[in-house]
Specification:
By secondary structure, the protein is α+β, with helices and mostly antiparallel strands. It has helices spanning 25-33, 55-69, 81-107, 114-130, 132-138, 147-165, 170-182, 192-195, 203-209, 212-220, 228-236, 257-271, 283-293, 300-310, 379-382; strands spanning 2-5, 20-21, 40-41, 318-321, 325-331, 341-347, 352-360, 373-376. A hairpin with a 3-residue loop joins strand 4 and strand 5.
Length: 395
Amino acid sequence: MYIHDLSCDWMTHPFVRNRFLLRSDDEIRKIMQAGIHDVVIDSGKGLDVQDAPTVAQARAETERELVQIAAPLQVVTRVSLGMELARATQVRRQATSLVRTVMADVRLGKAVELDRVQHTVQDITESILRNPGALVGLLRIKTKDDYTFLHSVSVCALLVAFCRSRGIDATTTHQAGLGGLLHDTGKALVPDSVLNKPGPLTPEEFTLIKRHPRDGYDILRQSPEVGAIPLDIALHHHERRDGSGYPDQLAGDAISELAQMAAIVDVYDALTSDRSYHKGIPAAEALRKIYEWSKFHFNPVFAQDFMRCVGIYPVGTMVMLESGRLAVVIEAHESNLLAPKVNVFFSTKSKTYIKPETVDLSRGFGFGGADKIVGHESAAKWQVDPMRFLSLADA
């Protein structure tokens, strides 16, 4: 059979490629030992399974379940998206600079200066409390060159938002944010040639990458002020509930609640980001994968809570409307998952920018609505920058 998708994130499996022709029983054993419970096959390139559902059938069933699950929780925002964007832009820049400095210091053998990190986590938390969509939306845009640094900031922001949506207290949320910002500290010891390698990793390079949780834990322990929660998140954000993760192969509830939440956030941000070896996928596709993997790898309750936290169409997502217009999502609807508020800005029929306007897709014709999302669209495909239109005042 021809493996089309191993149904797990790339840091979980030992193969140099995601797609390949199965040639031996040894390869099947490797798949099973990696904790992979199901795969997608390409019947056009290899043998078929008579009773297996098609990709379309499986996707339709998952889509139906997602829509049922992910009716978003009502998130109270203190200020509008437009008002928060300028402050969120500054927080993003300062936080990214801090992570870059932390990584450089670690490579020089210096301990992490927790005071500066504490202030940055507080800034991120306050932005999330004012309007979570602004900072989280801005952090969706990463280049492969700054991925390592922005990923840490994004995991921090998403984990704070996740804690907030689950009603976790402020002190614990702050500690989780610290863990999110510092979770990949151990990658400072991984050579850039491996960290940013554009092609598949060799088994030796894969082993080297898998050392980063333990390395990060050891580095953070050198700063006595770092608490138990950040240490736990740094060490265990790659553990999986079926015991297939690393470094300690913990299973089930032996993995702490916050480490399980961090694992979901870490994979979600990695899947949706462009990297040197991987093109980011749309948020809905990433949530679909996390939902499917939650049967074995993640806590299903936490996975569903995260879907409600970010929504199928998070702020900053570019979508195609039934009218043929492109739009960027600016606000989730409190009860209708598929009908967020969007800013339309481009006509795919005339292939030109149009006068931007805000459309509430939950409203009917004559009330500012009468359109609906038909799918995600790639900004690169249309050569547009949807982030310019998050706030119409700045467009």
